[in-house]
Design a protein that fits this description.
Layout: E1 4-7, E2 21-24, E3 29-33, H1 36-40, H2 44-57, H3 65-82, H4 85-102, H5 105-121, H6 125-139, H7 147-170, H8 177-184
Antiparallel strand pairs: 1-3, 2-3
Helix pairs in contact: 2-3, 3-4, 3-5, 4-5, 5-6, 5-7, 6-7
């Protein structure tokens, strides 16, 4: 599955694919970049291809920066699932930078869930629980429709026990967009994964290998 074009009103907000990213062109044709289903069934190559096409569009100033943050955090989730944790971290750090600069609380929360997934894979369930708490604090409540958050919570609880999970989760009470960068340990000097990529990688958003 690469790109599917669907007729839709130019300003209609898609509701069916909440965890995917849907972008429409100026002619009202929706470019369905929903990687969520592909990722859920384990087709990481297909998911990478779909979200890569979205990443290639993000240099267009017509798109709000939040779309760039959503795209980068999704790329981070895909690479983490594929086992490339250093690359995943670079994507997540760029996602957090964009999200924090946008001051969009739900998008910052979404990106925090991505970082929680990463640190869990790196072997730190306590920090994963803390970051889930930070995401919910910034969002204002838990979002039980986000399957990545549910997966991280389940695995972190299994590792820490209910009491350990709740203690780590509650440490993030009071987290705000303004304090999110410090909570994540964002490196202000780090560059995003695509800063040095060549022309051949501009369409799919992949860094040079």
């Amino acid at each position: 599955m690469n790109r599917t074009a669907l007729a839709a009103p130019p300003l209609a907000l898609p509701e069916a694919l909440e965890e995917g990213i849907m972008i429409w062109d100026p002619h009202g044709v929706v470019l369905n970049a929903n990687e969520a289903m592909a990722r859920m069934i384990g087709d990481l190559d297909d998911a990478r291809d779909m979200i890569g096409r979205s990443a290639g569009m993000m240099s267009n100033p017509a798109f709000a920066p939040q779309f760039g943050a959503m795209t980068r955090t999704t790329q981070g989730l895909i690479e983490a699932a594929a086992g490339d944790l250093p690359l995943a971290r670079r994507y997540h750090e760029e996602a957090m930078r964009i999200a924090i600069e946008s001051r969009d609380a739900p998008v910052v929360a979404m990106c925090l869930v991505g970082v929680a997934d990463l640190v869990l894979r790196e072997g730190d369930p306590k920090r994963a629980a803390y970051l889930l708490g930070a995401a919910d604090a910034i969002r204002g409540s838990a979002d039980h429709t986000v399957h990545d958050a549910a997966d991280v919570e389940r695995e972190a609880r299994a590792a820490l026990g209910d009491a350990g999970f709740e203690a780590a989760y509650r440490r993030a009470t009071g987290m705000t967009v303004a304090t999110a960068a410090e909570a994540v340990g964002l490196d202000p000097a780090a560059e995003g994964p695509d800063r040095e990529r060549g022309e051949d990688h501009q369409q799919d958003g992949r860094p040079d290998q």
